[in-house]
Write a structure and sequence with these properties.
Layout: H1 4-15, E1 25-27, H2 35-44, E2 50-55, E3 64-66, H3 67-74, E4 81-86, E5 90-94, E6 101-105
Antiparallel strand pairs: 1-6, 2-3, 2-4, 4-5, 5-6
Helix pairs in contact: 2-3
Length: 108
């Protein structure tokens, strides 16, 4: 079990990520940065309707929710957030900076 201090460090690191593997990251162009567009992109890569959220926003962190709802509560909010669609294989990441939005996929 992770300590609260370790969890806090992890969550704070989401705001200014240094450990993203950019070889696996696909930056989203501004025109595709809408809830519906991001949801469609994730689902086209195998995402289901439910996801797990890890976020520097304490109201979202640790939540299991509908993907659409998670995206509605994440896009443009300025909190470092990972939405895990397929654990270890497909995530949506949004950083603190404007337009810092990525889809990360594991290579097969």
């Amino acid at each position: 079990m992770q300590s609260k201090k370790g969890r806090r460090k992890l969550l704070d690191g989401l705001n200014h990520p240094k450990d993203l593997d950019m070889r696996r990251a696909r930056s989203l162009p501004p025109k595709t940065q809408t809830v519906n567009q991001v949801e469609m992109l994730l689902k086209s890569r195998g995402a289901s309707d439910r996801c797990h959220v890890i976020s520097s926003d304490p109201d979202l962190d640790g939540s299991e929710m509908l993907l659409h709802e998670a995206l509605e509560q994440t896009l443009g909010q300025g909190s470092g957030t990972i939405i895990s669609c397929i654990p270890g294989k497909l995530v949506y990441f949004e950083g603190e900076e404007q337009n810092e939005r990525y889809i990360l996929e594991a290579f097969e």
